[in-house]
Amino acid sequence: MNRDEMIGQLDDSCWDMIVIGGGATGLGIAVDAQTRGYRTLLLEQVDFAKGTSSRSTKLVHGGVRYLKQGNIALVTEALRERGLLRRNAPHLVQDLAFIVPRYKWWEGPFYGIGLRLYDRLAGTLNIARSLSLTRDETIKRIPNIETKHLLGGTVYHDAQFDDARMAVTLAQTAAEQGAVVLNYMPVTGLIKDNDLVSGVEAMDSETNRFYNLRAGVVINAAGIFADAIRCMDDPRAEKLLATSQGVHLVLARSFLSSDTAIMVPQTDDGRVLFVIPWYGRVLVGTTDTEINTPSIEPRALEKEIDFILKNAARYLAREPDRDDILSIFAGQRPLVRSSNGSVYRKTISREHHVVVDDSGLVTIIGGKWTTYRKMAQDTVDEAALVGGLEIRPCRTEQLNLHGWQSKDDPAMPTEDHLRVYGSEAAALQEVIAAAPELNVPLHPRLPYLYGHIIWAVRHEMARTVEDALARRTRSLLLDARASIDSASRVADVMACELGKDITWKADQTDRFIALAKGYLP
Known about the structure:
By secondary structure, this protein is an alpha+beta fold. Helices cover 35% and strands 22% of the residues. The chain contains 17 helices and 18 strands. α2 links the parallel β1 (15-20) and β2 (40-43). The two termini are 36 Å apart.
């Protein structure tokens, strides 16, 4: 992907669909629409997956907790999408075993029956059969689990992924299909003809140039900012979303010496807590805090940090404290507001809804990463009708995403930070081998090389130090202090590649360091 080339296509093109928002939902829509043959333009106000879509629990899952709520349809749909995503992006989605520890006698039959149902709902796309474990078997699988009152456990299987890398992969897939996808291109207004939305006004943040862009239909996939886009259409528009914040802590791998994750089904606030191995670290989360105003860069509250440390300590033999935290990240969920106006988080739907306003603006709200493909399919189906476009079938069920590489391919890299590039990993390694200065680690505590930064600029539209360290690599999440130490040199490398001056380098370094400090306790 080349941003300058993408920008060059704006002046002479007409669009069937314009998508507002470059997170999981918007990128999925761009892939779906373009593969159907609709000329598609996607506009993202900052960077791809800058908001919610890079701040998830990194799981591709059916949603075990929704079984308890009796939402069989949602679980069945998510399990099917989990299976499709494992098949269509094997380089990005990895199987992961979870143990639900059992400390009370009744939890054995309760979770055993529930997880067997989970397996059956997955059908032929099931990963592996769930099993009951004895106390000794549970300790063997998770040696450092809290053993006091432990009776045993239940093991089940889901999958995990790198959410920001998946977003970049979707952008690349859409571009390969012929779509134009642009970051740093905020929509500043809607264009109307006879009270019907017929396009958008957008600004290139790098040049401050404005563009009037017209399309048969405009799709609002702005996530937590979807209501703000609808207010551009109608300032009196009713709010559709309720925002909830989830926080995750990143700890050293020593807190979980097993490759098996822990799922705690009931914390103090009724949410599920996950303890997950990820990129040689341990991810612990999440919280559920009502937020009145959505933010592109949310910050963890002190009470959220304390909540996770307290609950995690109950299930780990070694109790983490604030000094053990390598990074803290917060994300805000765009949940569908219930019909009676209630904003009680655990009763709000995670299902997605497609809304069409009188103006013809199509808005997609709700959902989660696992079901992004189905969300896109439903949205494009509706948008084609609204835009009066030729009706064409969805083609994404069988679509291999950019970089697809079979799990059985002996050339598939084994290292997490290389495997996510899939079939492009060999080309990345050739770039690194061609220049010795690129074969140097960003930091002793990070798995990335400077070659990853060059690749991100040349092929993945990384425009800032934050893009490179937060999303093209996951340095900021893996170790915020190490990423701060790396920022200045990364700015140097990027400035050389992008043709920027010393002022840009200093500004980028300062901006990143200020941002990264917010990822530390």
